Structures are given as C-alpha cells and as structure tokens.
Amino acid sequence: MSPLRELAHAKINLYLHVTGRRDDGYHLLDSLAVFAGAADELRLEQGAGRGGHVGLRIEGTFAPGLQDDCADNLIVRAGALLRAHVGPERAHRLPDVDIVLRKELPVASGIGGGSADAAAALRLLLKAWGLSISRADLMALATRLGADVPVCLDQMPARMEGIGEELTPAPALPPCGMMLVNCGQSVSTPQVFKSRAPGFTPRAGLPARWDMLADMVRDLSAQTNDLQDAACAICPEITTVLDALRAAPGCRLARMSGSGATCFALFDSPEAAQAAVPVVRQGKWWVWAGDLCRTGARLESPTDSLPA
Ligand code: C5P
C-alpha cells in the first residue's frame, strides 16, 4: 500500500464478554478481535498551506449523511490530537493535508469503522508529517479517540481487555471465510451498554492456536457476545439477520459483532462464504463475504523521540 493510502479494515468481535465496570462508567471487556478484508480507504492529498490543518472529504457508498470537515469526525479529531501532541511550535510548520475517505463500511455498526478510520488517519499523518512517536504515546492517543482505536492501529487479531486498550496477540487462527451482514439500522453503543442485563461474565480460556476451524468454532460457541440480546431488543432486525446467517449453507457460527447491528458468520473458506451470499441477501441489507485480513498494518519501529 502506498504511503499516502491506508485501508481501515472492519473489526469483528468473535466474542465479547463484559467482565466489569469502571467508576467512570466504561465497561471492562474480554474480547477477541479479528479484521475482515472489508475496508474503508483513506487517501492523503497535500494541502497548500502550513499549520498541520487536516481537511476531510468523504465519498463512497456510506458517504451520504456524513459531513465533510466535521470537527466530530474521528479522522479530524485524530489530526487535532496529533497536532496537540507535537506542540504549537512544531505543528505550525507541518504541511496542511486533505484526507479523502472512501466510506465503504456501514456507520455506527459494531465493526469499528470510525475507529479504524481514526487509526488509519494516525498512521497516514505520522508518515505524511515524518513524525515518529513512542508506541506508548501512540496507544495513549488512540485510546483518547476511542476504546476500539488501539486495536485498529495494527489491524492484527488480538485479545482486547481493559476497556479495549489492553492488547495481547490472539491465538493463531485457522483458514476460514467470513460473511458480514448489516440490516441498515445504526445502534447506539452507549444505549446498548446501558440496557444490557446486569452481571458480568468471566474471561474466556483460550488456546495458543487453532489449527482447524472446527476447533475454533467449538471454543467460540462456548463464548457469547454479552451485548447481543440488548442490541436485538433495540433493533429486532438483528435477530432476522442472525437467523438468515445460521440458515445459510456452510455457516459454522453466526454472532453479532461489537454493539451491533452488524453480524458475522464463519465459513470453511472465503469461497464458501461468497457462495452463500445470494441465499442470505435480503432487501437493502449490506452484505460482504471474503477472507480475514491477515497482514495487519503495524507501524515500523516507532521510536521514543520526535525527529528534530
Ligand atoms: O470509546 P468509545 O467512544 O468508542 O465508546 C463509546 C461509548 O460506548 C462510551 O461512551 C461508553 O458508553 C460505551 N463503552 C463502554 N465500555 C467500553 C467501550 C465503550 O461502556 N469498553
């Protein structure tokens, strides 16, 4: 991938346990996150001036309803945080840039699209501005943008704990295929957390690797997405999506990702997932099928200092 382009892959929670609650209201999680081939694309264009201003233009399937240059957009906020981190002296000399976002992932849909965009923006801006910051600082900046942003920096399968920012490598994954289905309704993450049934689930026990999909499906079937029932109560069409996925030929496991509404299904191969698409597709549902993203996007050796 050219240094001026980054893919922001969909993050899928294969299971999600709510293990506790912090005093500030954030929930403690234990979740296994993987990344699907489905992605937004960010392209960076050099602006005319200096000052480190980040402009944002949005195009693509899910652009309608999103605003260019919106200060609340996580891409714009990522730029502002990075500028603040380097300090006004240095930020003043940074070239202005425009980021063009091709939005191909559904918005507010439990697959971390906004978080993946923010992480991709951080990767792009570090390259474009020739900055190198410590891994610890980068993780702290990412966490300030959102609990899902740290895992999206590397886009590698990872176990997420804490509020999502404590990352350890996932078990080695077997070959498989994945289908994603979103019914077109966005679900509010805070509302889902608030309306879930009280109580906490213990951490899952995970092996070091899964050689066969059958082993992974057996272990994942014993886990849950603790937000699924609450999201289905808020958006009943999620249940229809899950039923359609479970009925699809070759589906090995179907579950909701994150706080919904997107659901995923695991298949023996990307081809098996693609073959089931016509059976699953209904009305205006967004459907994607393919492989997991297995390459990641890990930044090359961030150092502990900013260049002079
Ligand atoms: O961190 P992020 O902005 O993605 O979180 C959105 C909302 O989701 C939070 O304001 C909080 O209500 C809820 N949340 C939570 N516990 C987490 C992650 C998110 O309660 N670990």
From TrEMBL:
Residues 73-153 form the GHMP kinase N-terminal domain. It catalyses: 4-CDP-2-C-methyl-D-erythritol + ATP = 4-CDP-2-C-methyl-D-erythritol 2-phosphate + ADP + H(+). Gene3D superfamilies: 3.30.230.10, GHMP kinase, C-terminal domain. SUPFAM superfamilies: GHMP Kinase, C-terminal domain, Ribosomal protein S5 domain 2-like. ATP binds at residues 106-116. Its EC number is 2.7.1.148. The keyword Secreted does not apply. Residues 209-277 form the GHMP kinase C-terminal domain. Pfam families: GHMP_kinases_C (PF08544), GHMP_kinases_N (PF00288). Keywords: ATP-binding, Isoprene biosynthesis, Kinase, Nucleotide-binding, Transferase. The keyword Acyltransferase does not apply. It comes from the Bacteria. The active site is at 11, 148. It is an enzyme of class 2 (transferase). One of its GO terms (biological process) is isopentenyl diphosphate biosynthetic process, methylerythritol 4-phosphate pathway. Catalyzes the phosphorylation of the position 2 hydroxy group of 4-diphosphocytidyl-2C-methyl-D-erythritol. Belongs to the GHMP kinase family. IspE subfamily. This is 4-diphosphocytidyl-2-C-methyl-D-erythritol kinase. It comes from Komagataeibacter europaeus (Gluconacetobacter europaeus). The lineage of its organism: Bacteria, Pseudomonadati, Pseudomonadota, Alphaproteobacteria, Acetobacterales.
